Amino acid sequence: MAERGTDDDRRTALVPARPPRPEEFADDLRTVLDEGRYDSEPGADPAESLATAELDASTDADATGVPADPIHVLPTQQIGAPRRASSSISRPPTATATSPVDAMKLDEIARTRVFLKFVFAGSVAAALGAVVAFALIRDPATYDPRRLLTPALPIVFGSMSGVYYWGAGSPVAAMLVYGIYFFSLGVDRRVPTSMYALVAVIHAALGFGIMTGLLADHGVVQIGQLRTREQLAILCIIEALYFIAYYTARLSQRVTLDAMGKLEQAVRGNAQRDALLAEARAELDRALKIGGPGRYTDQVIGAFRLGVLIGRGGMGEVYEAHAVADQREAAVKLLHPGTLAESIQLQRFLREARTAARLDCPHVVRVLEVGTTAGEAPFLVMERLRGLDLAHQLRRQRRLPLAQTKVLVDQIAIGLEAARVAGIVHRDLKPHNVFLAEDGGLRRWKILDFGVSKSGGSGTLTQGHVVGTPAYMAPEQARGEDVDHRADVYSLAAIIFRAITGHPVFTGKDVPSTLYEVVYRVPTRPSQLTELPPDVDRVLAVGLAKDPRDRFGFALELARWFSAAVTQGLDPDQRRRADELIARQPWGARLGSARP
């Protein structure tokens, strides 16, 4: 019997041509069915395969025309090779796709399994790092940014596992930019730098491994099939994004620290200035020597005996006094002998002071007596007031509410109207000369020092025809021109400006520069210095007009406008008048010359 090997490692035996017994045919057929091995095409019937083999053998013999050897002309039968252990016991059954839909389902199942493995591993690592980090930052007192580096490592590795799954060149890799930026905003530089370097190195290693074939590219978005130049470009772009996120975050953190440092420095400077101002106020109060004796204490001036000093300024001193006859209280103001150097100035002062003494208004301090001492020092005897002047209140409070300012303006306007009717121009209306008197629970604003020309220092001046305080002086008064009651209207508007904004209308480094500002510069818009209704800007624009003809005709008109501005608002005609003036002289503008 001859044997020959086949491709499927089966042995073929040639047996005598005799009809197979039924039991032998059944055994052979069972063997083929059990092993699932036969030479026919998949799905062919085993009986048909055997019949086909016999037919092929006879056909070959007929085709040659040579009588076959008796042993070779016998029908052949294919017998399987020795059987190996069946794999159906040791291996689980494997699903076989029978359609494209089934193939996609199997791919989805396999892909999801891998994804869930990466998600689980990355989540565990990130959660572990987050728990440790949370424990480290729980107590702010013991917080140390450097301690965050340890829990940051598992967070980074957990994130990079997702990058490997999705692909080193996938958008997921670029999403790590957010994490780099977040951590790079930290105060300590070492932690964000280490995290950035770790992410950049791991990502570069993944990309290099895939490019060189050291790592299999199993990512959802694969770059292995791209050309090397394209792979390198993608990886470089992602690395650049990492660096940009790190650099911009560190730059932002540095700029923020610089801004906060400057803010802290400014706050500290303001605190120091406030401390200096508080010290200056204390020294000012001591300089006033309120309640202490002065050089004229116990002297008799006119019909009054002088007591303690209750005020002191650059132009004179104010003493508490009592009438020698009936002990009624009064305040005596003594001017320095050099205040009115020329006799004509002295006569003018006495005349205007006596005119002011005839004023009978509850908002004007009453002048009881005017004269000169034996040493030719001018003096005025006024009613004794108890309270504080506006300058003192603004030193303590800096700004007054609009409601309080409205009361002040209404009452001072009444006093100025009384002076206007009497033909008197104050010429030096300012916060020091506006006094809040308290009498039996009644509080009332009063105007002080009517008809007094002041001099000395940088606060007041009496030089030729220029009389007044520069910061509250009308432009025509600063030019040395004749003035009327509209100069007092300007001064009242300047007081309003100072009271509601906390800033003087003009502040020069010296008297000449302040006078120049008064004449040639339009003030800053009040609402730029503090929050104010727009109509208040309009009122002050008219009250502070450079030309007296553009101002209010009298103080009561200013008071009515201001009252309307802070309550129901100005009417259209009033707004139109103010807006036309502002259009000609915008806020903050510098004028070439004053209009004649």
Helix/strand layout:
Blueprint: E1 3-5, E2 11-13, H1 22-35, H2 46-64, E3 77-79, H3 87-90, H4 100-136, H5 149-166, H6 171-184, H7 190-212, H8 228-288, E4 300-301, E5 304-313, E6 316-323, E7 329-335, H9 343-357, E8 367-372, E9 378-382, E10 387-389, H10 390-397, H11 402-421, E11 434-439, E12 442-447, E13 461-463, E14 466-468, H12 475-478, H13 485-501, H14 511-520, H15 526-529, H16 534-543, H17 555-566, H18 572-584
Helix pairs in contact: 4-5, 5-6, 5-7, 6-7, 6-8, 7-8, 11-13, 11-17, 16-17, 16-18
Biggest sheet, open or closed, and with what strands and sense?
6 strands, antiparallel
How many domains, as an integer?
4
CATH superfamily heading of the largest domain = Transferase(Phosphotransferase) domain 1
| CATH class descriptor of the largest domain | Mainly Alpha
Which regions have little confidence, pLDDT < 50, spanning 5+ residues? 1-16, 36-44, 49-55, 57-74, 77-94, 453-465
Q: What's the shape? A: elongated
Structural class determined from secondary elements = alpha+beta
Please state the second-level CATH architecture of the largest domain: Orthogonal Bundle
Q: What's the total number of strands?
A: 14
Q: What percent of residues adopt helix (DSSP H or I)? A: 40-55%
The termini sit apart by: 144 Å
User: Strand portion, in percent?
Assistant: 5-15%
Radius of gyration: 53 Å
Number of helices: 18
Highlighted features:
596 residues, alpha+beta, Phosphorylase Kinase, domain 1, 4 domains, 6-stranded antiparallel beta sheet, 3-stranded antiparallel beta sheet
Give an account of the 3D structure:
The protein has 596 residues and is of the alpha+beta class. Helix content is 51%, strand content 11%. The protein has helices spanning 22-35, 46-64, 87-90, 100-136, 149-166, 171-184, 190-212, 228-288, 343-357, 390-397, 402-421, 475-478, 485-501, 511-520, 526-529, 534-543, 555-566, 572-584, and strands at residues 3-5, 11-13, 77-79, 300-301, 304-313, 316-323, 329-335, 367-372, 378-382, 387-389, 434-439, 442-447, 461-463, 466-468. A 6-stranded antiparallel β-sheet has the order 4-5-6-7-9-8, with helices on one face. A 3-stranded antiparallel β-sheet has the order 1-2-3. Strands 10-11-12 form a 3-stranded antiparallel β-sheet. Strand 5 (304-313) and strand 6 (316-323) form a beta hairpin. Helix 5 packs antiparallel against helix 6 (171-184) and helix 11 (402-421) runs antiparallel to helix 17 (555-566).
